[in-house]
Amino acid sequence: MNYWLVKSDPGSYSWGDLVKDKKTWWDGVRNYQARNFMVEMQPGDPVLVYHSQKTKDVVGIAKVTREARQDPATDDERWVAMEIEAVEPLKNPVTLEKIKSEPALAEIHLIKNSRLSVMPLSKEEFDKIMEMSG
DNA sequence: GCCAACGTTGGC
DNA sequence: GCCAACGTTGGC
What we know:
The chain has helices at 15-21, 32-40, 96-100, 109-112, 123-132; strands at 3-8, 23-26, 46-51, 57-70, 80-95, 118-121. By secondary structure, it is α+β, with helices and mostly antiparallel strands. The protein is globular, with a radius of gyration of 14 Å. It starts with a strand and ends with a helix. The chain binds a DNA duplex through loops.
């Protein structure tokens, strides 16, 4: 099992939207590195959802329900989408500020490569964020 | 609103 | 195949 974090600007699609929709095809990613991670995702893998721009915090847990297939939003066969489903909100959102202040999380892409929108987390990193959320 | 970082595009 | 120009992202 692998652990992931996906970023979304809540102005375009938020955790609340996912909860309302129950599940969604995570499409529109146009970055090769992110695409490659999406292809590795397997049904059942936990996915943390992070809100960029405004609140800058990890707000909920989702899980992968369908593995990646060609992005239905485009004819360009280079891009893929996978389906995720909302599992539960975090009791306390974990802010970017808190993540930055935690040495155990210093290596995650969220900090090292802030523009990447889909990234893997180690089990330790995932557990750490869960612990920080209470 | 600004701007640094960085990925992509396209001319050569 | 290189690299300058450009567009986008996202933190501040």
